[in-house]
Amino acid sequence: MKKLSLLIPVALVAAALALSALFVVDERENVLVLQFGQVKQVRSEPGLGVRIPLIQEVVRYDARILGLQSQPLEVTPLDDRRLVVDAFLRWRITDVVRFREAVGLEGVRAAQGRLERILNAAIREVLGSVPSGAVLSEDRTGLMNRIRDLARREAATLGVQVIDVRLTRTDLPEQNLEATFARMRAEREREAADEIARGNEAAQRVRALADRTVVELVSAARRDSEIIRGEADAERNRVYADAFGRDPEFFAFTRSLTAYERSMRADNTSMVLRPDSDFFAFLRTDGMPALGAPQPPAAEDIPAPQSPTATEEMLGQ
Predict the structure, then answer these.
(1) Which of 115, 116, 37, 130 is nearest to 76 (CA)?
(2) pLDDT digits (tens, 9 = 90+) for 7-36
(3) Count of other CB atoms within 10 angstroms of residue 24
(4) Is the domain of 111 the same as that of 136?
(5) Which parts form a coiled-coil structure per UniProt (predicted)?
(6) In a shared domain, residues 111 and 126
(7) What is residue 313's predicted lDDT score, i.e. its pLDDT?
(8) In this predicted model, which residue has the larger pLDDT, 231 or 314?
(9) What mean pLDDT, rounded, does the chain reach?
(10) Which of 44-58, 60-74, 171-185, 295-309 has the highest mean pLDDT?
(11) How does 233-263 read in b/e, with b if 16+ C-beta sit within 10 Å?
């Protein structure tokens, strides 16, 4: 009975020791088995593991992708326009032995602190080598990739892999916003003034070309009109001369009738002439001009009027 009472505690202790010697490795973690601080086992595959109780300890590290949000960092690009940058880093442990040696007992918390310093140094180095316009343009993706590659090389000494780096915010410091906006307004106003000046210059060229074209067209039109008027006057004189040569008396008669029609109107028929004057030669009873009445002018003596008004006046004389 005494033996049985002693065996039961021994069996319980042995069972407890046997159970404590077993450990489970989850698929979301990596496991180190340490003995007096020395690494004895590395387990990354899920399953059941065995350790020496009370001598060996199990240290677990997350095998999933972890995130790190950096604190706002002020950087100075090449053009000395300071920027406030926030970045987000994704990383995971790839070498748990090296990770243990690098960070010691503090684990992930210490690794995040060191990764943030690595990330900040990479951001300063990359963004400090380009102007601020490149940070705010479509070149931003290439800059983030450069930061990621630089941080990845530095973080490899910790046994971790940097998966990706993203710049979540890139803004100007509050104290620089007003000065920056004023400079941007000045630049836009200068560009607008340049555009207006170029537009005025182009408008002046167009106006000068239009004015020259107008002068050329008007001059050509006047030249053509003078040519046509001269040809018409020459044709009129030819017709007059031909009509006078065929029947001088009839020509004189029609010219006198035209003169009567234009001079004897209701509104301006005030004439002081002798009844037997030559003007009324065709109004006398015989219908013939008085002896010694002036004959119609010859064709070569007919003046060439310079305008239709002069022609009409000549016809009315």
Answers:
(1) 130
(2) 666 666 666 666 667 777 788 888 878 787
(3) 12
(4) yes
(5) none
(6) yes
(7) 40
(8) 231
(9) 78
(10) 60-74
(11) beebbeebbebbeeeeeebbbebbeeeeeee
At position 42, the amino acid (one-letter code) is V
In 3D space, the residue among 170, 156, 171 whose CA is nearest the CA of residue 87 turns out to be: 170
Same domain, 55 and 94: no
Any idea which residue has 């915010």 for tokens?
169
pTM: 0.51
Tell me, yes or no, whether 201 lies in a domain: no
Letter for the amino acid at 152? R
Per-residue pLDDT tens digits for 167-193: 988 877 776 667 777 888 899 999 999
31 occurs within a structural domain? yes
For residues 78 and 39, membership in a common domain is answered with: no
d(CA 59, CA 39): 10
pLDDT for res 201: 93
Are 260 and 303 in a shared domain?
yes
d(C-alpha 104, C-alpha 83), whole Å: 35
HSE-CB at 228 with a 13 A cutoff on CA atoms is: 7
Q: How many domains does the chain have?
A: 3
Q: Which residues pair with 42 in a beta bridge?
A: 32
Residue 166: which CATH number?
Answer: 3.30.479.30
Residue 200 in any domain: the answer is no
Q: pLDDT tens, 67-82?
A: 999 888 888 888 877 8
> Could you tell me if 46 and 71 lie in one domain?
no
What is the spatial distance between Cα 54 and Cα 52, in angstroms, rounded to a whole number?
Answer: 7
